[in-house]
Design goal:
By secondary structure, this protein is mainly alpha-helical. The chain is about 60% helix and about 5% strand. It contains 5 helices and 2 strands. The protein has helices at about 20-40, 45-75, 85-95, 100-115, 115-130; strands at about 5, 10-15. The protein starts with a strand and ends in a 15-residue tail after the last helix.
Length: about 150
Amino acid sequence: MGAPRSCGGKITVKLRRRKKSIDDLLDEFVFCTLAQTREILGSKGSVRRGNRYAAKALRVFDELRKKHGDRGRDALATLFQHEEDDVRSAAAALLLRYKTGEAMGVLHEVAEKGKGLIAFESAQAIKRWEEGDWHLDPVPEEEPDS
């Protein structure tokens, strides 16, 4: 915490935001991905809330790649071995440009299980990639120091 400051007779405290580590960002990505699935597929879930979690997971990915570059991408690739297919396929879909072979392997594996929304989303990621209509991780203009 910063030092208390006076503002119009009231004392306020300026809080410093702690920079999130790569591990913190990975944990947040996993949480948001699992929450998205729970909200969209759950009996009492909400598609609207699920979409909010999806947007947050994409913001986490942007933070990983913008602040950590390839180190952030490599960290996200560790989720290819996650126990939950939704986490594995979400990470793979985001990393198709960077780790094409590994990511396609994960997506094909999940899609071939043929169960529900996660398999469908994996198949759609494969289709978009093969059609050249995939733009989730554009080639960076300038990477941070890795």
